[in-house]
Design brief:
Helix content: 10-25%
Number of helices: 6
Radius of gyration: 25 Å
Strand order of the largest sheet: 1-3-11-5-6-8
Number of strands: 23
Distance between the termini: 86 Å
Shape: globular
Strand content: 25-35%
Length: 404
C-alpha cells in the first residue's frame, strides 16, 4: 500500500511540473541563442519559472499587460545596417506580441527591477508581426493597429533580446525569420525581357458633406488619413473623389465647419469593393453635445502624443478658430475593465486632457474657452469590452461643448 501511494505522489508531482517543462526558454535567464536565420517555435506554453511581466496597464505600449505563453531569444548581429524580422503563424487565432531590447550587462536584473525599456514593441492583435523597412512607428498599441514596427540600425557584434508572447492561445506555433543586413550585390549588366504588367484593379472613393437637418451641402475642412502614406488636408470642400489601387483601407475622416460640431469617423474598406461612397451629415453646434477623438493617442503611461494624433489635434484647433464663441471641456478617459478607478487612472486621464489643452494654448487659443476633466475608467463606453476595438474605444479624449 505504501508503494502505491508513493507512485500516486510521484505522478501528481510530475503533473505539477508539466507547465515548466512545456515552457522552454520562457524565462530571461534561459535565453535561446539563435544560430540560424530561421527558427520554428513549437507548442509555446506558459511563462516558465518566473512571470517577468504582470499587472501592467492595457494601454502601455512598452510592456505586456501579462506574460502568458512566451519564449525569449538572444540575437547576435553579424553585420552592420538595417535589421528586420518576421514572426509568422498559420493559425489566425494566434496573437503574437513582442518586445525587443538591447542586450546590456545584468540584463535580467534590469528586467526584474523595470530599469530597462524595449527599443521596439508591437502589441497589436495579429498572427503575423515583426520589424519592417516600410513602417515609421517604433511601438504599436494593443488592438487592431499596425502589426509591424520600424526597423533598427544595428552594428556587427551587437546583441539583442527578443521576447515573444501569445496572450490569446496556448500551444501556439510561429516561425521566426531574421533579416540581417547584407552587402549590396555586384551589379551585372544584362538584357532582360520586357514585361508588360497588368493594370491593377482600382477603387473609386468618394464622399460628400451635408447638413443633417436640411441635407444641403456644407463647406468643410477635412483631414483624411489611411488612404495614402501622408495625411490629406482639404479646405472648404463639399465633396471629394480619388482613384486608388484596390486594397484594404482603414480611413479616419475628421471634419470641421463654422457653426457645426466637430466630426470624426472611422471607415473600413475591403479590397473586394470597386466603389465606396460616404455621405457625412454634420450637426449644428449645441451646448452639451460631445465628439470623441479616438485618434488622439498617447505614449504608454504618460501624456506624450503619438505622431498619429497630429491630424485630429489640428482639426480640433481649426474647429476652435472657426467657432470663436465656443467654449469646450476636454474630457480624458482610460481603459481599465475590471479594475477600480484608482488615483493613477484619474491622474493619467487629467494629464492627457491637459496635454490637449496645452496644444490649443500653444497655438493661440484663449485659456478662458477651455476647461478639462479626467474620469479615469469610470465612464468606459464598453465596461466589459470583448473585442480589441471595444478596448480601443474606451481609450479616448472627448470634446464637450460648454457654451456657444
Amino acid at each position: 500500500m505504501k508503494s502505491f501511494f508513493s507512485i500516486v505522489l510521484l505522478v501528481f508531482c510530475g503533473y505539477l511540473t508539466i507547465p515548466s517543462i512545456l515552457a522552454q526558454n520562457a524565462d530571461c535567464n534561459k535565453l535561446l541563442g539563435l544560430t540560424d536565420t530561421i527558427f520554428n517555435a513549437k507548442n509555446i506554453s506558459g511563462f516558465g519559472d518566473k512571470q517577468e511581466f504582470k499587472n501592467n496597464f492595457n494601454d502601455n505600449l512598452t510592456t505586456f499587460p501579462l506574460e502568458t505563453n512566451s519564449i525569449w531569444y538572444l540575437i547576435k548581429i553579424p553585420s552592420t545596417g538595417a535589421f528586420t524580422f518576421d514572426i509568422l503563424s498559420d493559425n489566425k487565432d494566434d496573437d503574437w506580441d513582442f518586445l525587443l531590447y538591447e542586450n546590456k550587462n545584468l540584463f535580467c536584473k534590469r528586467i526584474d527591477s523595470n530599469k530597462i525599456k524595449p527599443i521596439r514593441a508591437n502589441l497589436s492583435r495579429s498572427a503575423n508581426t515583426g520589424l519592417s523597412l516600410a513602417e515609421t512607428e517604433q511601438f504599436s498599441s494593443p488592438g487592431i493597429n499596425n502589426n509591424y514596427s520600424k526597423f533598427i540600425d544595428v552594428k556587427q557584434g551587437q546583441s539583442y533580446v527578443l521576447v515573444v508572447n501569445n496572450p490569446k492561445r496556448t500551444y501556439g506555433n510561429h516561425q521566426l525569420i531574421l533579416h540581417y543586413p547584407t552587402l549590396p550585390p555586384i551589379k551585372r549588366l544584362e538584357v532582360l525581357p520586357v514585361i508588360v504588367e497588368k493594370e491593377k484593379p482600382k477603387l473609386n472613393f468618394t464622399f460628400d458633406v451635408k447638413d443633417l437637418a436640411t441635407n444641403l451641402p456644407v463647406s468643410s475642412n477635412v483631414s483624411l488619413s489611411g488612404l495614402l502614406k501622408e495625411t490629406i488636408d482639404l479646405q472648404d470642400i463639399t465633396n471629394y473623389q480619388v482613384i486608388l489601387e484596390r486594397s484594404n483601407y482603414r480611413v479616419i475622416l475628421t471634419l470641421s465647419a463654422p457653426g457645426y460640431m466637430l466630426y470624426s469617423t472611422k471607415i473600413l474598406i475591403n479590397k473586394t469593393k470597386s466603389t465606396f461612397h460616404q455621405t457625412i451629415l454634420l450637426e449644428r453646434i449645441e451646448e452639451g453635445k460631445k465628439v470623441s477623438l479616438a485618434e488622439i493617442q498617447f505614449q504608454a503611461g504618460n501624456d506624450k502624443f503619438l505622431n498619429t494624433s497630429k491630424s485630429s489635434l489640428n482639426a480640433l484647433l481649426i474647429f476652435m478658430q472657426q467657432n470663436t464663441q465656443v467654449k469646450i471641456e476636454i474630457e480624458g478617459h482610460v481603459n481599465g475593465p475590471g479594475q477600480p478607478n484608482h488615483e493613477e487612472f484619474k491622474q493619467l486621464s487629467i494629464d492627457r486632457a491637459t496635454a490637449v489643452k496645452n496644444y490649443l494654448l500653444e497655438n493661440g487659443m484663449d485659456e478662458s474657452r477651455i476647461s478639462i476633466s479626467g474620469y479615469g475608467n469610470s465612464k468606459m463606453i464598453y465596461p466589459d469590452p470583448k473585442t480589441d476595438d471595444e478596448h480601443s474605444a474606451n481609450r479616448r479624449v472627448e470634446i464637450k461643448v460648454v457654451s456657444r
